[in-house]
Design brief:
Length: 410
């Protein structure tokens, strides 16, 4: 049965968010409406909203938040929240055998799964942070499938006998953020410098180097596959125009732009960006941090200057706008009053066509003001070993992961 008590806890947290209860990037969106929850019968619940909330189903019925998981009520009441984390029970094709946090997860096929009996009886999921180590494990047959390879390593894997590289379609996007554009004392406050960065980037070449050309150059930070995404061409690669803009802004010889922090593990893309910026006179020094540190510094507003991020959470254009463009978003360092008003307007709009028009307007304003330097769509390059007869990557729409019950080994 749907855990109504937990949904009520989520709704209470929306109005007074506790750390870890509601994904912070979605709190403002969720605050736009409250609701009552009633159990109709063992298979149905009724939600009564106190105002329009177009993204209600996005918030509670998609992977965007995980706020309404279906889990066995009696088991939760028996073992509690902590007990459930240690030995979870769900409705999927595999049962949890053991969990070693941050290291390994062992699963066993559930023969009575409603859809079909899984073909692979046992699955072991391992955390291997180092990219080269993952690649060697695929080559030697120690593992059969691994994720998140950069271009050079993926190219080497592609040349290895029996190894296949796949790049599933995702809700992902790479972009550069100008964190200090709101500070009048910062060079990035000048729109001409932000435009210079946009024209300095050879997006196609970076895609070739970082993800074997699988990542299409992008014009906005909303992935083109999302609902309400604005479909426009990316800025032209024009180093001469970038230098002209720098000169007009008072930097004819370029300038030192300080630190450049890339999100791990996308360092090949970061190197391409740094080289393109250097070619037009924008000099940055790369600072490497761990992934957890990166997100903590971004969320706590400790990153400065410009940085490279990659975001792959599901949702729609509104959820991306809320998190990164709306001034009160969890990862926003600033914003514009007119964009904020448009965001609130679309959140109340029930007419889909009108809502799309407003969201398109927001995205166009972000382009016109050079709030970001969108780079390319995110594709998580996946290495597949020779034992896989059916890897099922791309079988689940917009997921980096396979359809586990459909996988087959040779």
């Amino acid at each position: 049965m749907l855990r109504i008590h937990r949904i009520r806890k989520y709704q209470a947290a929306i109005n007074a968010p506790a750390k870890g209860m509601i994904p912070q990037k979605l709190v403002p969106m969720a605050r736009l409406a409250g609701f009552a929850v009633d159990v109709v019968d063992p298979l149905r619940v009724r939600f009564t909203l106190d105002r329009p909330w177009p993204d209600f189903l996005l918030f509670y019925a998609t992977p965007a938040t995980g706020a309404a998981w279906i889990v066995p009520k009696k088991y939760i009441e028996k073992v509690g929240e902590e007990g459930f984390k240690k030995a979870p029970v769900g409705a999927g094709p595999y049962k949890v055998v053991s969990v070693s946090a941050g290291n390994e997860l062992r699963l066993e096929a559930f023969a009575d799964y409603w859809r079909k009996k899984p073909a692979v009886k046992n699955i072991i999921m391992r955390s291997i942070p180092d990219e080269s180590t993952r690649a060697v494990a695929v080559k030697t047959g120690e593992i059969d499938l691994a994720y998140l390879f950069g271009g050079p390593v993926a190219q080497d894997l592609k040349r290895s006998p029996g190894i296949t590289i796949k790049a599933p379609l995702l809700y992902g996007m790479y972009w550069l953020d100008f964190l200090d554009q709101w500070d009048p004392k910062s060079p990035w406050h000048d729109k001409r410098l932000r435009l210079a960065v946009n024209h300095a980037l050879n997006r196609k070449a970076i895609s070739e180097a970082a993800c074997l050309g699988f990542c299409p150059p992008a014009a906005v930070i909303v992935p083109r596959v999302m609902d309400y995404a604005l479909q426009v061409e990316p800025p032209a690669y024009d180093p001469q125009k970038a230098r002209q803009l720098l000169a007009e802004a008072g930097y004819p010889r370029g300038f030192d732009a300080g630190e450049f922090v890339p999100i791990p593990p996308f360092f090949t893309a970061a190197e391409g960006v740094i080289n393109d910026l250097k070619a037009v006179g924008i000099r940055v020094k790369m600072r490497l941090v761990e992934r957890a540190t990166f997100y903590a510094e971004w969320r706590e507003k400790k990153l400065r200057g410009i940085f490279l991020t990659a975001v792959g959470n599901s949702g729609n254009a509104a959820s991306r706008v809320e998190a990164f463009i709306y001034s009160k978003g969890s990862y926003s360092y600033g914003g514009y009053p007119d964009i904020d008003e448009l965001f609130l307007q679309q959140a109340r709009e029930r007419d889909s066509a009108k809502r799309e028009a407003v969201l398109h307007r927001i995205q166009q304003l972000a382009i016109d003001r050079a709030m970001f330097a969108p780079l390319m769509d995110l594709r998580a390059l996946t290495g597949i070993g020779p034992r896989m007869a059916e890897h099922t990557i791309n079988l689940v729409p917009m997921s980096a992961f396979p359809s586990y019950e459909d996988m087959r080994l040779k």
